[in-house]
Design goal:
The complex is a heterodimer of chains A (400) and B (157).
Chain A (H helix, E strand, L loop, with lengths): L1 E6 L11 E7 L2 E8 L7 H5 L4 H9 L6 H16 L5 H29 L3 H22 L8 E2 L2 E2 L5 H26 L2 H7 L7 H6 L4 H5 L7 H4 L20 H24 L17 E9 L2 E9 L5 E7 L1 H13 L7 H8 L9 E6 L5 E5 H14 L11
Antiparallel strand pairs in A: 1-2, 1-9, 2-3, 4-5, 6-7, 7-8, 9-10
Chain B lengths: L2 H12 L3 E8 L2 E6 L4 H12 L3 E9 L3 E9 L4 E9 L4 E3 L9 H11 L2 E3 L39
Parallel strand pairs in B: 2-5, 6-7
Antiparallel strand pairs in B: 1-2, 3-4, 4-5
Classes of the chains: A alpha+beta (400), B alpha/beta (157).
Chain lengths: 400, 157
């Protein structure tokens, strides 16, 4: 007997609420279909009507979790078009904020993954520690979400010695805690068993479906713009690209935890090596006609902005590709052959936002059309009960 | 492989099919091909230049023509393939057979520019609502948003 389960589209936290229509046979998902556009704001059209500076603030509002990513991707493209080189100190501060943002995004995601796997103390620990980095971001920029640090040609706020000391102190605490969670993860067999083998995406599939970010890296694809196309400061820092070849949710957790440790390393290097000098270069009002492709590694994967200028004070075209969109085709593959109970976990493995809101899920009987409304909390209860129904994979181990 | 080597190699492999190759910046290569040569060029990039990753597809409204840019990335360079189709006959071949991950981006240029992507496995709309009028394509330059007048029942007229 076939059922179709529509999930979504209401979830207010994400910039792209999605509706997934799952065809299930019993507990097993046989097919998934994605419907987008519930929050399409016509931003690319709008950008053609705003000047170069106004667009910084527009792009910053594309996403609420990685707000700095889009603004930075846009600004580094515009700087190429305007042929200005930002001062080194400005660049260091800009990418310092980028890495702090990655830390906050990954910690948020780890908490959600723990919560969906029924490991709520993990959620509470990581979200408590996320406050450390949120406070640092507020200290540096004045804001917790929209940092508004970018200006064309540099950044808007400088760092002083006190802030540098606070950042180093915060990183030392976070590193100790992250290493501790590592040990917890390694010694918590039920957590590892719950996420091992769920949401499989092979390396071939990840390559064919153009997956990006931690999803691709967890499938063994070493794709990271910071290494492939090292922009700005990344070729001056010592860090390692993290991959995992387990291809499942466990791999995605491992990649993100290890990336956290790499980010702490980068943040410390940037703070210690922060050069003296100006933080912003003077930018012209309008660039010459031209086009530029700007790439940036956001916490969830590669951001791509294509910017075309026609010589006026407004862009001719601004094309934005956010990493979540690139991962949707891969999501469909991950959901196939999975269980209904794994849906929250697999969603959480791509993007945290679908799981942070309580929302209704409708179960439709394929034959009678009868509908039953299930709350997300019930779905989660099923998720927690699932190891009892299907025995945990006894041999699964934390891969360290 | 350095940028210059890639450009030279592309010139050799594509011959007359490569209408224009530019290298405006480090690790940025722009290649122009005719619309008929698009799929062979993309296949060549995937097989010989390690460009299995399609970052996105950009559509541009140039007045008489539409320009379509396929942004590929290999570990050493970002190669953008551009092609042009006339506005009077906006048709382009689908590259989904070569790059399965392209389907969302092709759906997007279909609805945003009114292009027809021939052979696309899934021709539904991507972002626009179901009740969106058929002949309106928002990212065309001649399309302007007109905010409908809001009528509040019982309000002042």
């Amino acid at each position: 007997m076939n059922f179709k389960i529509p999930i979504g589209p209401q979830h207010p936290a994400l910039k792209e609420p999605i509706s997934l229509r799952m065809t299930v046979e019993g507990e097993v998902i046989t097919d998934a279909d994605i419907r987008l556009g519930y929050n399409h704001r016509g931003l690319e059209k709008l950008a053609e009507d705003r000047n170069w500076v106004q667009n910084i603030y527009l792009t910053e509002r594309i996403c609420g979790i990685c707000s700095h990513s889009h603004a930075t991707c846009y600004v580094q493209g515009v700087e190429k078009l305007m042929e200005i080189v930002p001062p080194k100190r400005g660049l260091y501060i800009r990418y310092l904020v980028s890495e702090l943002e990655r830390v906050h995004s990954h910690l948020l995601w780890l908490g959600v993954a723990g919560h969906e796997a029924g490991f709520d103390s993990f959620f509470m620990y990581t979200w408590r520690d996320r406050e450390i980095v949120m406070d640092l971001l507020e200290l540096v920029s004045g804001n917790r979400v929209h940092y508004a640090m970018n200006a064309i040609g540099g950044v808007r706020r400088d760092l002083d010695e006190g802030q540098k000391a606070k950042i180093l102190e915060g990183m030392a605490t976070l590193r100790k805690r992250s290493e501790y969670y590592f040990q917890i993860g390694a010694n918590e067999p039920s957590f590892v068993a719950r996420i091992a083998g769920v949401g499989m995406l092979t390396k071939e599939q990840a390559v064919a479906l153009c997956a990006v970010g931690p999803v691709a890296r967890a499938s063994g694809v070493a794709r990271d713009v910071r290494k492939e196309d090292p922009y700005a400061v990344y070729d001056e820092l010592e860090w390692d690209l993290v991959t995992s070849d387990s291809c499942d949710v466990l791999g995605r957790v491992v990649v993100r935890v290890k990336e956290l440790l790499e980010s702490y390393k980068m943040i410390e290097q940037m703070v210690r090596r922060l050069p003296e000098g100006d933080i912003v270069a003077k930018a012209p009002r309008r660039p010459k006609p031209g086009e530029v492709l700007s790439r940036y590694e956001a916490p969830r994967g590669e951001n791509t902005h294509f910017i075309q200028s026609n010589g006026t004070d407004k862009p001719e075209r601004l094309k934005v590709r956010a990493p979540t969109l690139a991962n949707y085709p891969a999501t469909v593959v991950m959901l196939r052959k999975g269980f209904i109970a794994d849906i929250p976990l697999i969603f959480a493995a791509i993007d945290p936002c679908i799981c942070c809101a309580e929302r209704a899920v409708t179960l439709v009987d394929g034959r009678s059309g009868e509908e039953t409304v299930v709350r997300m909390s019930d779905l989660r209860r099923r998720s927690l009960a699932r190891p009892a129904n299907a025995p945990a994979k006894g041999k699964a181990a934390w891969p360290f | 492989m350095s940028d210059i080597e890639i450009v030279e190699s592309l010139k050799r492999d594509l011959g007359a099919k490569a209408l224009e190759i530019t290298n405006p910046d480090r690790r940025r290569i722009f290649l122009k091909v005719a619309a008929a040569d698009l799929v062979p060029a993309v296949t060549l990039l995937r097989d010989r230049y390690d460009c299995a990753y399609l970052a996105t597809i950009t559509g541009l409204d140039k007045g008489e023509t539409f320009e379509i840019l396929y942004h590929f990335a290999s570990p050493v360079a970002s190669i953008t393939v551009r092609t042009q189709v006339p506005r009077s006959e906006p048709r382009v071949a689908s590259i989904c057979a070569v790059i399965p991950g392209a389907v969302l981006y092709e759906r997007e240029i279909q609805e945003m520019f009114g292009l027809t992507v021939e052979g696309i496995p899934d021709a539904r709309r991507l972002n626009l609502p179901d009740d969106w009028p058929d002949s309106e394509y928002p990212l065309r330059k001649d399309w302007k948003f007109v905010r409908p007048v809001e009528v509040i029942p019982g309000g002042k007229s």
